[in-house]
Each structure stands twice: as C-alpha cells, then as structure tokens.
Amino acid sequence: MEEMVAAFDIKDVLSNPARFDLKKAESINATHMRMLEISDFASRMVPYLHEAGFVSAASWDELGAREQEVLTAAAPLVQERMTLLGEAKGMVGFLFTADEDLTYDDESMTHVNKIEQRVEIVERSIELIEGLDSMANPHDVQQALRTVLVDEMGVKPRLAFTPLRVAVTGRRVSPPLFESMEILGKESSLKRLKNFREFLVSAS
C-alpha cells in the first residue's frame, strides 16, 4: 500500500472511464505461468484436473505414481500453449481418459469430415504403428507417418495428421501429437486409432 501511495499522482489519471482489460490480464497471467519451474507448473494443474475428474487427488503429493509420471511428461508440452491453468482440463485431460471413454468435440469433427481420405489415413496409420517396436521416438514416428500419408497418399501436410490428432486427443488443438502418443504408449495409441476408425465408418 505504501508503494502505491508513493507512486500515485493525480496528474497521471486519465479522464477516460476505467476499463478492466481481460485480454491483457490473461496475457500477463500467461507470461508469469511460463516463468514457473516445470515441476511447480505441473503441480498447479492438479486441482483443476481433479475438479474435472481426471486425476485421483487435488494435490501433487497425493497423486498416484503413474499420474505424476504422465503430468511430468505432459507439462513441458503445454506450458507454452496455455494462458490459464483452467485450460489444463482441455489440454491434458485426454491423457487421463480411458481409451474407450474418449469423445470427439464437434468443432474438431467438422474439420475431420472435410478430409476425403480420413478413414484411409487412420487405417494406414494403424498398419504402420502396429509394425513399430514402440512410440519412444516421436520424431521417427512422425517421419514414418509423413512418408505414408503425405508422400504415398498425397494428403496435404496440414491435413494429414488432423484425423490422428482427433483420434488420440479428442480435439484438433492439443499438445504435440507424437509426444502425446509417446506418453500414452503404443497399445493405448493403437486402441484410440481403432476406436476412431470404427467411429468414422459407423458415421459414414
């Protein structure tokens, strides 16, 4: 309070009505959030994820080992992409969702349904991933899929991975796709792709 009094001068008060700039406030919040140590940032997401039913406890120390492992891996992927901690539910909730319970938002499906080769994209991706030993090298997985989807099938690069992203995360906007698949693992990633293939076929 003493600092505010010392800094205040009536000459600096504008005649225009005061206005709370929400966008500026969110921008400032995002800047400070990105300055957090990654472990601090990860722990601050926990109450929001717990409130939405994604994790088992409201504090980091009470989480299970696998939950901590997933959040530790996911935090660096989303820290630069989030403006508010409340966005954690949409950004990483899919990592804590059972494969069979994942849903696809309508806006994302609108984009997927515009891609003529969407079913073939998913099917060819399943075939490729089934032949991999693991998902441990996201760059190699991406390059292998790019070869199949872009070079062989001729799908535009900006469209090639959209069906896969929605299949794995339920959303068109998400953390990096292949790093997310690494966190989920091969078995879970394949199950989600197969579930999405069935969803697309049944909807067509």
What does this structure look like?
This protein is mostly helical and 204 residues long. It is elongated, with a radius of gyration of 21 Å. The longest helix has 18 residues, at 186-203. The chain starts with a helix and ends with a helix. It contains twelve helices and no strands. 61% of the residues lie in helices and 0% in strands.
The number of distinct helices, counting runs of at least 4 residues, comes to 12
Percent strand: under 5%
Rg over CA atoms, rounded to whole Å, is: 21 Å
Regions with pLDDT < 50 over 5+ consecutive residues? none
Largest sheet: none
Element string (H = helix, E = strand): HHHHHHHHHHHH
Backbone shape: elongated
- How many β strands by DSSP? 0
- Kindly name the structural category: mainly alpha
Please tell me the overall pLDDT.
Answer: 95
> How helix-rich are the residues, as a percent range?
55-70%
Distance between the termini: 64 Å
Task: Please name the defining characteristics of this protein.
mainly alpha, 61% helix, 204 residues, single chain
